[in-house]
Fold:
Amino acid sequence: MSQLSTESRYDSLNAIDSSINKAAFYFIISAITWLILSSLFAVIGGVKTISPNFLSTYEGFTFGRIQAMLNSTLIMGWCSNAIFAVAFWIMARLSKTPIKHGGILLIAGIIWNIALTLGLLGIFIGDATAYTWMEFPRYTSGIFLLAYTLVAVWGIIAYRHKQNDYSYVSQWYILGGLLWFPWIFVIGQFFINWFPVRGVLQSIVHAWYINNVFYLWLCPIALGACYYFIPKLSNTPIRSYHMSSLAFWTFVLFASWSGMTYLIGAPVPVWLTTTSIVFAISLAIPTLIFYVNLIGTAFGNFSQLKSNLALKFITFGSVAFVLHLIIKMGLSVSSIDAVARFTLIYEAHHWQLIYGFFSMIFFGAFYYLVPTLLNHPFKSFFLPNLHFVLSAIGIVFLLIALYLGGWQQGTQYNTAELSFLEIAQNLSLWMQLKLVGLSILFIANLLFAFNITALLLSKLLDALPSFSKDKLNQNT
Amino acid sequence: MNHFSILLFGIFIILTSSFLGLISSSLNQLGNLKQSTETLELNDAGDLILVEGDPLYPMKLSGLSEQGHLEYIKLGCVNCHTQQVRREELGKDLERGFGQRVTVPRDYIMQANVLLGYSRIGPDLSSVGARKTDLNWHLLHLYNPQITSPGSLMPPFPFLFETVEISETTATDNALVFPEGNPYSPKDSIAIIPTKRAIALVEYLLNLDINYNLPEAVVTKNDTGE
Structure:
């Protein structure tokens, strides 16, 4: 089955696209702003691990807070805004419904960004929680929920008549992600921030929260985008599409149950981690299907892959994702875990998911979405292609530095003759390479922002009367 | 049921099942843990009960330690330090002297926030209070880690200290004592005074110690690795 048929009626497509314009651009611009900010924090953090004295006289810039600001702006700033921009547009297109009441979405977006700003300031002055990836202070959670409630209200109003039209697996992923996120968020906030459970139960809820935010919020939406864009851009139906529903159900079930692998060795009941290890290993089934469905299809039409910018990003992301899942399975093996636990390997694994997979998919999606929404193509693909090359090099650099450095850290840790201080000092080469990777990514992200802004500006300039008809004619 | 209802039902079941299976069941198992004496005794009815009059572990944190615990969170120490000791086959935690026994769930029940941590750029701190007992060492280490651990990746926390000119009117009783000839020592006319926050944080660190027995976790290792 192919999703190409959705492309048929251009008039209705234009109507769908223009219906989402205002809200979509708001989310796109917010997402990019938070992306730049988070990669700036990443570079500052990177410098600090090489030279601990850097900015150390300012309490707000101490390493722990920089790390908290990096994590939270990345997930709730960049990822979530990007999801709002892309997910609703794909849903609108696949269900062939123009987005009505986009104003509600816009208000939700504004409230979301207010919560983010407040949360970031909160972390800066020391109100962060003690739980990674959910560091935003307790008082912001209600604002995030309010914003998300508006999104839900909008969803119910906009889709109340479209219940029977869920035939594409893309839609399943996106609907799933949008419905799972508020539950995950509320459970995390409830048991950790509002009515804290006692003792290590906090750590159990925390591991469950992180795991589900990654695998039931970021992953489903990005996978929905993969299943939408890959066949569309490569002009090829998804290879073995009939397997994709099996991949959907097995992936979300196994991934959601695999969260306690974060706690291998921790003071929690052993049956918890063992259960999650079994589910983590079972992820082999969906991983294999993703390989055939996504990578198989994208590489099936190689000439298209070479020439289409968005497809390059999305294929890179799919490869990174399949590798991420294979590494996730590996990390749940106890002999590997005995080396990898508490090392940079876990940092690498998160970067691979958020940057190598999620962000690359959404860069690709933005490069398709923005020109389409503007009805205004890129005049030159040189800079967008450069952005792809820089991002790819940056992420590969970063991952190599962290995986190899982490493995060295782990083996040296288990060599009891080496003092702890020596192990940390032996990391300096890898920390420098990590900083190189992060800096390349920072530059790449600036270039991304430039590319999108330049396209917006050139559209605005073209729209001015003084630029008259002949210029417009070139573009159509 | 139509297609859409099945989809919604599946979406709901997936997350609910993992919530019930992983979180609710652990709440059930661990939710009622209480403090305990180091050993238990049999009563007449054949039940194991607490030994009357023995101290209860884990101990409650003092008010000052509690403040230090909050400082630990505020400064994001959890990003580089863990507070957990794993079983022997999973890593060299015991051999490195990070604790004299494996940590168990009961160790954490008195803490407002559990700081198991996820990364060991810095060493584990579950028993740092037993390893490093000197108040001045901890203060120097926070003021600038390079004084006590040259080459450390830990950032200095100078904002937890006040720099004062020594004169007849200033009280410098609790000023930091620097090792002789250390390149990071201040000038002779300057004293470095820890703020309340630094004192609280160090008090917390000094009280981090799991080298007590619990019925389910008995101290086995007696040599410290460092």
Summary: Chain B touches chain A through 74 residues (CB under 8 Å). The longest helix of chain B spans residues 3-30. The beta strands of chain B are 40-42, 48-50, 161-165, 190-194. The helical segments of chain B are 3-30, 63-74, 128-131, 135-143, 145-148, 196-206.
